Every structure is written in C-alpha cells, then in structure tokens.
Amino acid sequence: MKALVYHGPGQKAWEEVPDPTIVDDTDAVVRVDAVTICGTDLHILKGDVPAVTDGRTLGHEAVGTVIEVGSSVRNVKPGDRVLVSCITSCGACRFCREGRYGQCLGGGGWILGHLIDGTQAEFVRVPFADTSTFAIPEGVSDEEVLMLADIGPTGYEVGVLNGRISPGDTVVVVGAGPIGLSVIMGAKLFSPARIVAVDLADSRLEAAKQFGADVTINPSREDAVEIVRGMTDGLGADVAVEAVGVPESFEQCTALVRPGGMVANAGVHGVPATLHLEELWIKDVTITTGLVDTYSTPTLLKLVASHQIDLARFVTHRFAMADFMEAYDVFSAAADTHALKVVLTP
C-alpha cells in the first residue's frame, strides 16, 4: 500500500510500505476512507517530537471501514464504519479507568503516527479496537466526523473544559488555527460574555469571526493586553487559552489573564517557554496543560449528529491521497493558502 512516511526533520515521502496486519488479538485493520493532517504532524516534521523515528507512517486521524479484526475484538466487525481516534486506549490500566486515555499505561495513548505507524495511508492497524474506535451515527458525513478524531475533542477538553469556561466569562484564545477555532466553537456552548481571538494572520482572524469570536486582535498592530484589560475593567481575561505552541503565545496568555483566572495550554510545544512566576505568584492564576484524552468524543458525536455544532466548516481543501505531498504544502502554508483543515480520500 501507499503511505506518507517520515524520514527525519523536514523529510517525508508518499511511498510503498507493507500492508498492515493483525498483530495482537485486540487489533483491527481499517481501510482509510478519509484522513487529514494535523498541526502536530508539522511539529514532527520540524523535529519537535524526537520519539518519531525514520520510517514511521504519520497521521493520527481517520475515518474508515473495518476490514479485519483480531479474535478478541467484540464491539467492532468487518464492514463497520468507524472513527479512528487520535488516542488509543487499553481500557484497563489506572489512567484509562480514570478516563485519562491519553496517559494509557497499557500500550495506548498517543501512539498512531508517533510510536507506531499511523493513519496517513491506505490502511491502518488500530490497536485496542473495541476502545479506540467509535461507531459513526447514520447521516453524519466522513468530513464531519473526521474533525472529531483530534481537533474537536482537543479544543473542547484541553481548552474549554480545562479552562473551566463559564457563562459570562471573557475568554481569550491565542491562536486561531484549527485548535483555536475548535476552542471558540466549544466555548460558545457555555455562553461566555465575549470571546476574543488573537492571531498574527488576518485570514485566521476572519475565520475566528465565522466560528463565533466577538473581538479579533492582531498583536502585530495592536496591544492585546491593553485591549483586553480595557474591556474587563482593567482586570484581564477570565480564561486565556494557548492554541499555538510557541513560547511567545504562552507568555502572552499569562499576561492576558486576570487575577484568579485560568490559563489553559492546548498547543504542542517543542522548546521551553518562560514562566514568569515573579509576576504570577501573587495572582492566584491556575495553569493547566494536557494531551487530549477523547473522553468527550461520544458527547461531541451526539452534538454533530443533532446539528448542534458544524464541524464540516473546518474543511477548506480536498485532495486525493496520491496528492499527499501537495496537501502538506498547502496546509503548512496556511497563512497564504488560508487552509484550516485538508481532507484526503482514496
């Protein structure tokens, strides 16, 4: 089969690799019907995730059709249409029993496209198939549900729920890429007083407006701290969500938040950021971090199926899998191409 293979920082290729097979009796092999590219894949290609080694098939998001299952699989059968989650869960270890699937001790967690071959391929082996795939409701399109493989639950869990967004809050989202937009969409479910989007790209600020931001700020031209304090009686944001993954955006969130407020880090960081405790120690600020656990995926599937949220709007570009290299070029140049999410199909 063909797959998108990592060959070290800055190097990738769409090339022939062996077809996946059942390795453990809890596995399934899934034909990939739709797949996308994540900002984390770009971090990998920059060399930010050294655990990803030469020869690894990238990708951790897919919608597909089950073609084979191991002898112990009970809830999934050939022919089923499933969402392949970015997080794999053994279902039995301490963390899985707590719903912290991202920290799985039994061989799961974020492994697809990281520690084992991933989803940017014609077929993928999915470990722990019973607890790591989700049945797709009737009437929900591949593109809609594909957005729940990662960005939907990541924005909701690591941004909205970790940030404890409440009715009446002023919420600032730093970074209006796919994760930031997912945070904005999820925050709307909790009736904040206002949502402020901060980004250096005007095209992404325009997208933020479409997803529900009330105010947009480009910090290359405006002082975000001054503007946010001006709308909050000089206090700052109740919740600041970091959705970029660079030191400057994290440090900006800590400057934007009010005393007693929340900073929720959702970005993937590859280098250290400065924690200004000399300013924060007295402010009673809570900072959360997190890898998505996908415990919210069943809830979000219900919201998609009932049309309470519209995830298809994330998709801006479509490609055939044979054009994976071009798709990466478009996605990585989002400031110029205005790409949010790209979808590839066979």
Written overview of the protein:
This protein is α/β, with parallel strands linked by helices. The radius of gyration is 20 Å and the shape is globular. About 30% of the residues lie in helices and about 25% in strands. The protein contains 13 helices and 15 strands. It folds into two domains: about 1-150 and about 295-345, Medium-chain alcohol dehydrogenases, catalytic domain (Quinone Oxidoreductase, Chain A, domain 1); about 155-290, 3-Layer(aba) Sandwich (Rossmann fold), CATH 3.40.50. The model has no long low-confidence stretch (mean pLDDT about 95). Helix 5 (about 150-160) packs across helix 6. The strands form three sheets. Strands 3, 4, 5, 6, 7, 14 and 15 form a seven-stranded mixed β-sheet that branches. A six-stranded parallel β-sheet has the order 10-9-8-11-12-13, with helices on both faces. A two-stranded antiparallel sheet has the order 1-2. It has helices at about 40-45, 95, 130, 140-145, 150-160, 180-190, 200-210, 225-230, 245-255, 275-280, 295-305, 325-330, 335; strands at about 1-5, 10-15, 30-35, 60-70, 80-85, 125, 135, 170-175, 195-200, 215, 235-240, 255-265, 285-290, 315-320, 340-345.
Task: Draw up the topology in text.
Blueprint: E1 2-6, E2 12-16, E3 28-36, H1 39-46, E4 62-69, E5 81-84, H2 94-97, E6 123-126, H3 129-132, E7 133-135, H4 142-146, H5 151-161, E8 170-174, H6 178-188, E9 194-198, H7 202-211, E10 215-217, H8 224-230, E11 237-242, H9 247-256, E12 257-265, H10 277-280, E13 286-288, H11 297-305, E14 315-320, H12 324-332, H13 334-337, E15 341-345
Parallel strand pairs: 8-9, 8-11, 9-10, 11-12, 12-13, 14-15
Antiparallel strand pairs: 1-2, 3-4, 3-6, 3-15, 4-5, 5-7
